[in-house]
Design brief:
Layout: E1 16-20, E2 23-26, E3 31-34, H1 37-40, H2 49-59, H3 72-84, E4 89-93, H4 96-113, E5 121-125, H5 134-140, H6 143-146, E6 156-159, H7 164-170, E7 175-180, E8 183-184, E9 190-191, H8 194-207, E10 210-214, E11 238-241, E12 252-256, H9 277-290, H10 295-316, E13 321-327, E14 330-335, H11 339-348, E15 351-352, E16 354-356, E17 360-363, H12 371-404
Parallel strand pairs: 3-15, 5-6, 5-7, 7-10, 10-11
Antiparallel strand pairs: 1-2, 2-3, 4-12, 8-9, 11-12, 13-14, 14-17, 16-17
Length: 405
């Protein structure tokens, strides 16, 4: 039967109807260990009792009022984020792309309010992914997302990932900001070394530029810190959050210092749904868990355990696994076979992982996973490796038979 949905996804033929913790149950009753986390969204897993309670309780009161009125729970959530980060102010959105749009507009508006309206260009990095709007695909600069959508939105200059000379050469009289993911997610879990993030901060300060971090995938505890940039001891001027901040409920946020946000006065930006009471109740419930004493330490421990176990799998299956990299519970496995085929092999073992660039599969499990789930995931990854090795042996035998014929 033809689906009425726009065919923009190559969907696997599985439908999930419920979940608990790190596990999902399909319509046929089969269970899957989810180490994709809805692409880093299910930060507290499925059916977390505290999130469910917050959603139901708020749902009985009021869902939406619009931002024409004060929303106390939004003010509370913003204050908690400010207290936990570099930021002085927060703007709530519905998604990561919207949070990035706000960050881009804010950077441009800052330069204009500072007397430099010509400084609207933003330097970005090849392999980046910042969203699916016209501006954010231009910021990412990847041809596969830009092709067919008309002229690329002006104002973004891509430089090669890790090329310091190209970065310096790209700074011109119209440059207003530098935008980077502390760890490229869709680009293949490619971490930016701490010294490079510190160097970006120094470079921005020297040239009067704003530093913007896209923490949509890395933020809210994913790497064992509330923001990934904390590992480098670097504070940006603006940062975008989403994914894990709502634990599955659509929620994003643009964070900024008071100086960076000085141009964003009444009427310069807005949203109909962003920051509504229902979203704020869920966001506060997520922070109740993530900011509780010991929680981020737990994420760091589970991430270290997972990487240690994956190193052993790499040693045992060198024909399949090329390298393992990442931080906390944001881990990439670069494989030698096709990564989509490896993801399918893992799915056949009832383990969910997410393909990414650089022939990587991402492991982005719920942050609440324990040692038992980590061990089970590794066991299923080993089984997926054996599946891939059997396919490699079969292909090699067919090639040998063909040569003999």
């Amino acid at each position: 039967m033809t689906s009425p949905l726009l065919p923009t996804y190559a969907r696997a033929d599985i439908s999930f109807e419920k979940g608990e913790g790190a596990w999902l149950e399909a319509q046929d009753g089969s269970r899957y260990l989810d180490f994709g986390g809805g692409i880093a969204v299910a930060s507290l897993g499925y059916a977390h009792p505290h999130l469910v309670e917050a959603l139901v309780e708020q749902g009985r009161k009021i869902w939406h009022t619009s931002n024409l009125f004060r929303i106390p729970e939004g003010e509370r959530l913003a204050q908690r984020i400010v207290d936990a980060t570099f930021a002085d102010t927060v703007f709530f959105t519905n998604s990561g792309a919207e949070a990035m749009e706000c960050a881009i507009k804010m950077a441009r508006k800052y330069q204009s309010a500072s007397g430099h309206p010509e400084k609207f260009r933003i330097i970005t990095f090849e392999g980046a992914f910042h969203g699916r709007t016209l501006a954010t695909i231009a910021a990412g600069g990847q041809a596969k997302y830009l092709d067919g959508f008309g002229p690329k939105v002006d104002g973004f200059d891509q430089v090669p990932f890790g090329d310091h000379e190209a970065l310096r050469a790209a700074i011109g009289p119209e440059t207003g900001a530098i935008l980077i993911e502390p760890i490229q997610g869709e680009g293949g879990i490619r971490p930016v070394p701490p010294q490079c993030l510190r160097g970006l901060r120094e470079l921005c300060d020297a040239h009067g530029l704003l530093l913007i971090f896209d923490e949509v995938q890395t933020g809210v505890g994913r790497t064992g810190k509330f923001l990934a940039c904390e590992h480098a001891g670097v504070a940006p001027d603006i940062a975008a959050l989403a994914k894990g901040i709502g634990g599955g409920f659509p929620l994003g946020a643009c964070l900024a210092t008071g100086e960076a946000a000085k141009g964003m006065t009444a009427g310069t930006h807005g949203t109909t749904y962003g920051g509504n009471p229902l979203a704020m109740a869920v966001g506060n419930a997520v922070l109740d868990v993530v900011l509780a004493p010991g929680f981020l330490d737990h994420v760091a421990r589970m991430g270290l355990l997972l990487r240690q176990k994956l190193a052993q799998v790499q040693d045992q299956h060198p024909r399949v696994i090329d390298l393992v990299r990442g931080e906390g519970l944001m881990i990439g496995i670069r494989v030698k076979p096709n990564n989509a085929e490896f993801a399918a092999a893992a799915r056949a073992e009832h383990l969910l992982v997410i393909p990414a660039g650089d022939n990587v599969v991402r492991l982005l499990p719920p942050l609440i996973v324990g040692e038992a789930e980590v061990s089970e995931a590794v066991k299923r990854l080993e089984a997926a490796c054996r599946r891939m090795e059997a396919e490699l042996d079969k292909a090699q035998q067919a090639q040998t038979n063909g040569a003999k014929a």
